[in-house]
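HUMAN: Please help interpret these C-alpha cells:
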Amino acid sequence: MELETRELTYFIAVADELHFGRAAVRLSIAQPALSKAIRRIEARLGVPLFIRSSRHVELTPAGEALQEHGRHALNAVSAAVRSARRAGDAQAHLRLVLKPGGDAGLLSGILAEYAHQPDARRVDILFSGPADRADFLRDGRADIGLLYAPFDALDGLAHETLHAEDRVVVMPAGHRLAGHASVRMSDLEGETLPRWKGIPGGDGTGPEVADVVQMLHMITVSRMIGVLPRSLVEPVPAGLICVPVTDAPPSRLVLAWNEQDRRPLVASFVAAALSTATGPTATAIGPASPKAVV
C-alpha cells in the first residue's frame, strides 16, 4: 500500500482542522513531526495536498479527493477490526444507535419482539449527536441504527423503512402562520430556521442547536421556527403549534446497518423490527389538523 493507515489518519486530521497546530494537538504528536509526515505523503503520491501560507491552510483538489476517500478507507479498516473481534465473541451484545427520542415510539415494541428470537442477544442502546448516526454504522461502533431519511445519508448502508410520516412546522402559538390548517415551504421564506450542530453548509440562519430539545426551547422563546417529523414533537410542548407542511418530503424512519454486515445477529434483529413495523404500530402518511397546547 502507498499509504499506511497511520499516515492517512495524520492527513485526515490536518484536512479536518486546516491547521497544523490544532491537528497536532488532536493527534498528540509534535507539530514538526506532523508537517514532515504530510510532506512525505505528498512526495510519495507526487501531488500537493495542501496550499500553505503563514496564515492559511487549504486543500488542493487532490487533497479534497483524498479526504473524501481516505475517510471511507479508515472507516472500513476500523469496521473490519471491530467485526473480526466481535465475530469471535459468541456473547457479543447487539449495539443500536439512535438519537434521543428518534424512534417514533417503535423501539419498545421492536425490543420486545426481538427478545422472542431464539438467538436474541442483549441490546446496548447508544445515543448519537444530531448527524453522526451513519458514522457509527460505517466505522463499526454500532451494529444497527435508527436513522431518518432524507436527513441522514444512507450511502454504504443497507436499510429498511419502518415508519413514514409527514413533517410539521413548529412555531410559537402567536406566530403569523399559527392559524393555518397547513402551509407550504414557500410560506416559510424569510423565517429564522435552526443551524444544526455538526452539519456544515445547512440552510438555517438562526442559533445553533444540538438536539430537538434545544430547538423547541428556542422556538418557545420566539427565536426561530423548525420543520420536524411529527413524532419528534409529540406531545406538543405548551405554547407551541404544529402545522403540516404539505410539500415537504415525507420523513422515513429507517433501520440501517453496514451493507457488508451479513451476520445472523443483525438479520434476526431486522426481521423482528420489520415484523413490528408492519403491525398495528405502522402509521400511514396523511393530513392532520394543527395541534396546540396553550
User: Anything to note?
Assistant: The radius of gyration is 23 Å. The mean pLDDT is 86. The CA atoms of residues 246 and 275 lie 30 Å apart.
